[in-house]
Specification:
8-stranded antiparallel β-sheet, alpha/beta, Rossmann fold, 34% helix, globular, Glutamine Phosphoribosylpyrophosphate, subunit 1, domain 1, binds 5-amino-5-deoxy-1-O-phosphono-D-mannitol, 3 domains
Length: 593
């Protein structure tokens, strides 16, 4: 969580950093801050709240002009949401400014040592120890450089970090990563640092992906050092295939609606995945002695849904485990096991941890991931890029349907029917185009208006629609804050039906498959107890109080079925006055366990 940026070049740093932070706001939006090296000192601005509300601060008078600076947008871990806890943190002499993403696990003991030396802490954060430690090395070791003081500081830190630090005296900017993301943009005589490339693609698409324990010093030019061997490294920038417009809202009011509307195109991207790559992964699944799909949140729902597709099409069992629970499965892993991780960001801590556990057992790791150069990609034996472009809204929408599409192709390929899978997805993409037509989107406002003041809402589905029910409930609750729960239709009678009272809304997924009859019976049980039934189906039914029509696309129905609920979630957020792009307490990449 948290987004960090750095800039060193020839232009005014403040404006560039503000713009970059706005792009990274999805990583955390409790507070933000910027520090720029100026004259006579480093100037700092910090605010509680969202950077996107900070337009009036573009000509901030507190910030002096300068061409080197750092910025931070925070998702609070240690310490409340206050200005004092916001980054950047300064050394006591004000000559060093630091931004940090990650967690310094031994910060309490480091704080204790620094306090004994007379350092007075202004915040409750773990990060504030970093500038003080650098300062302490600079003061206590004669002739030591900023870079060496930084390096010595790193040796003391335990935990995860991406850090950018600037020093007024040497006008140097340094950055490093250990298990937290950081990428470098190489421009013409200027350098950009960010947690994620969309922060600077407006300025350059030439990107260097750092490995753990690589330190980069910027002072005129750029020097990369391997902290383990002490050797200088030469790394060539890679060109990132994302364009500036993809990272902007364009004519849309929110990224969420924009990304929902992009799904025809992103499913088409899935169809155009390289046949050989898909076939190779499908063959690896067939050859493995047990395959695990590992993911979190919506990606987990996509993986769970795909396990039904594998069962139906390939009669193959896939173990699907929520990444945070995966360590409990380590006893069942052998070098013949295959792990397929599914993650938009490629930075989800639980998924990365699961990979660590699996690697120790010699398991082969294949990742389906959207962000190029992400930690997951670097830690996998093989990665398949989703190519959906940046997903900026905190909610997964286009990445979810892309994951479903790619996993569906894998299921078809595993029985030698890749072409059939691709043909099915072409049909899905066309239907998705209809479902996301601006006029059709607006139809959902009616049911959203009916639901907007409800406190609870339930979603049911059976078979392949069960994961869709879980995903639908997640979408609704995370963006509108209405309490929504997804259940398997068959589990209702085992408890949840006690929650149904007069007027309780229940969304029922009733696709044209073997589950239809039974899920309609479950819907009837709810209706008999006063529930209000919103049916998502290819055909209307007298049980439905409200009908949402979706196409019948066979095994790929979960892809189309979720779309009206993504749209419903969006309008629920709007009608309830919530920000759909920035739900409270959430961050896009969950980089803490
Ligand atoms: O980047 P990942 O796909 O690994 O993220 C997993 C979850 O954190 C993510 O899907 C989350 O649940 C979203 N808020 C869902 O909309």
């Amino acid at each position: 969580m948290c987004g960090i940026v750095g800039y060193k070049g020839k232009r005014e740093a403040y404006k560039i950093i503000l713009d970059s932070l706005k792009t990274l706001e999805y990583r955390g939006y409790d507070s933000w801050g910027v520090a720029v090296i100026g004259n006579p000192s480093i100037s700092v601005v910090k605010e509680v709240g969202m950077i996107s509300d900070a337009d009036s601060l573009i000509n901030n008078t507190k910030i002096t002009k300068g061409t080197t600076g750092v910025g931070h947008t925070r998702w609070a871990t240690h310490g409340n949401v206050t200005e004092a806890n916001s980054h950047p943190h300064l050394s006591t002499d004000g000559k060093i400014a630091v931004v940090h993403n990650g967690i310094i696990e031994n910060y309490q003991s480091l704080r204790g040592e620094l306090k004994k030396k007379g350092y007075v802490f202004k915040s409750d954060t773990d990060s504030e120890v970093i500038p003080y430690l650098i300062e302490d090395f600079l003061k206590s070791e004669t002739g030591i450089s900023f870079e060496d003081a930084f390096r010595k500081t790193l040796y003391l830190l335990e935990g995860t970090y991406a850090i950018v630090a600037i020093d007024k005296d040497s006008e140097t900017m340094l950055c490093v990563r250990k298990d937290s993301p950081i990428v470098i943009g190489v421009g013409d005589g200027e350098y950009f640092i960010a947690s994620d490339a969309p922060a600077f693609i407006e300025h350059t698409k030439n990107v260097i992906f750092l490995e753990n324990d690589e330190l980069v010093a910027f002072n005129g030019d750029m020097k990369i050092i391997d902290l383990v061997t002490g050797k200088k490294l030469s790394k060539k920038p890679q060109v990132i295939d994302w364009d500036v417009e993809q990272a902007k809202k364009g004519e849309f009011k929110h990224y969420m609606l924009k990304e929902i509307s992009e799904q025809k195109e992103t499913i088409n991207k899935a169809i155009h995945q390289d046949n050989k790559v898909i076939q190779d992964i499908a063959d690896a699944i067939n050859e493995s002695y047990g395959t695990f799909f590992i993911a979190s949140g919506s990606s987990y729902h996509a993986a769970l849904s795909a396990s039904y597709t594998f069962s139906r099409i390939a009669k193959k069992h896939i173990n699907v485990v929520d990444a945070s629970e995966f360590p409990n499965y380590e006893h069942f892993l052998t070098p013949q096991t295959l792990m397929i991780t599914v993650s938009q960001s490629g930075e989800t801590a639980d998924v990365l941890d699961a990979v660590k556990v699996a690697k120790k057992k010699g398991v082969k790791i294949i990742s389906i991931v959207n962000v190029m150069g992400s930690s997951l990609m670097r830690n996998s034996n093989y990665s398949l890029l989703m190519n959906v472009g940046p997903e900026i809204c905190v909610l997964s929408t286009k990445s979810y349907t892309s994951q479903l599409s790619i996993l569906t192709l894998l299921a078809y390929a595993s029985v030698g029917k890749l072409d059939e899978g691709k043909a099915l997805l072409k049909c899905v993409a066309n239907h998705v185009g209809e479902l996301t037509d601006p006029k059709v989107l607006l139809d959902t406002v009616e049911v959203a208006s009916y639901l907007k003041d409800k406190e609870h809402l339930y979603v049911i589905g059976r078979g392949q629609s069960y994961p869709t029910a879980l995903e639908a409930a997640l979408k609704i609750k995370e963006v509108s804050y209405i309490h929504a729960e997804g259940f398997a239709g068959g589990s209702l009678k085992h408890g949840p039906i006690a929650l149904i009272e007069k007027g309780t809304p229940c969304i029922v997924f009733a696709p044209n498959d073997e589950t239809k009859k039974e899920v309609l019976s479950n819907a009837m049980e709810i209706k008999s107890r006063g529930g209000y039934i919103i049916g998502v189906s290819d055909m209307d039914n007298e049980i439905f109080d409200y009908f949402i029509k979706v196409p019948d696309v066979g095994h790929a129905s979960p892809i189309c079925d979720i779309i009206p609920i993504q749209v419903l979630s969006y309008y629920l957020a709007i009608l309830r006055g919530c920000n759909p792009d920035r739900p409270r307490n959430l961050a896009k990449s969950v980089t803490v366990k």
